[in-house]
Amino acid sequence: MSDTSKTVKSDSSEPGKVEKTGGVIEDQTTVAPADDPTAAPVSVVDPRLLVREEGFKGYLTEFKRKVKGGELGQIPVVIGLIVIWTIFQAKNDLFLSADNLSNISYFMSATGMLAIGLVFVLLLGEIDLSVGSVSGLASTLFAVFVVDHTMNPWLSLVLTIITGAGIGALQGWFFAKIGVPAFVVTLAGFLGWNGLMLWLLGSSGTINIPSDSGPVHLLGQNSFFMDQAIIGAYLLAGLAVVLTAVGNFGEQRRRRAAGVPFRPTTEILLRVGALAVASFLAASVLNNASGVSNALVIFLAALVIVDFVLRRTTYGRKVFAVGGGIEAARRAGISVPMVRITVFAISGGFAAVGGMFFAGQTASATLNAGGGNTLMLAIAAAVIGGTSLFGGRGTVWSALLGMLVIQSIQTGLDLLNMNTSIQYMITGGVLLGAVVIDSISRKSQKAAGRG
Question: Given a cut of 60, is residue 54 above it in pLDDT?
Fold first, then answer.
């Protein structure tokens, strides 16, 4: 069926009346703003139908509608990232060099793993203050298993991740079943798991891990995908483009068959083309350095998998439902305690994985593992990237965008020989700005009847 089919409109003005647009059903339901039931109703139109009817004008109209309604998405963080890169490049022309961008991509992966798990928790409108301590404990447990008990490194890795997930589930149980606020439970975990880590490390405070032991070698800074082969980066870029195209056209086919709005082929091609340009450009830049690190590959793979879980599975929809409204989710038959416990288990599991990334960077477990500002940076990454602190809205890709912003600031200030105190102040300012934008966005959506 052609995307340019004419619209056959119904003369009825009844709310909820459906109209056909080229064989596709359009829901013309109107709703009144939530805070003013007497106000004029707002028509809810699927943007894919708007584009089908008006082409580029439809995109522009939909963009204006989203901005007025406070639906900014990742626009602020992308603009912020461009501004940050422009400023640092102007101050030091080494900032956008291949080697520096390679360093940014490698060192953001460890904290980024913590941020992925925190996205799940933030989608519920809750917080997990224990992820830093859990990551440090995980690296210590791995070191104890491998060094003190000569256990197989890969078995040690599995046990470490299971332990992290179990810690998260335990904290989630206290929150979901006993009713202890998540802030209090995870604050206790922050202190308790850090104490356990210190006890395991003993008086030396450090356990060196053999650099050739499985996971540590895999996640080291000098370990690259396909052993530094140039084809590796381009293979990853091509795979990303192919998977995106297959996913988008598959969704279009399913929605067309179901008789519901779908994205036009032209829009899909533009999206895939933009991704192809960005992916192959990034691959080219990284190849000019040393290649794509294994840590970055694993981080990106985790993002893709978790994004699929959140957007394409029943469990993901339950997480968003609970974050959007607990009572409504309960009435819909969702087990709220189950969702809460599993979300904190996921957060703990990713914290443990992040701890292994930290161990890979230093080939050791130390007192500083997961300490310092690790927790704050992980939370900041998720929030700066666009995940709402109020729950119910966000995407796992915010972990990537947020970490790009934070790691860019840290690396840029290091190049300029700025004091750590300046890094903290700037990162804090960016975090505050992200929360302010989120708050204003929520108010705008409520005023527009979409809150």
Answer: no
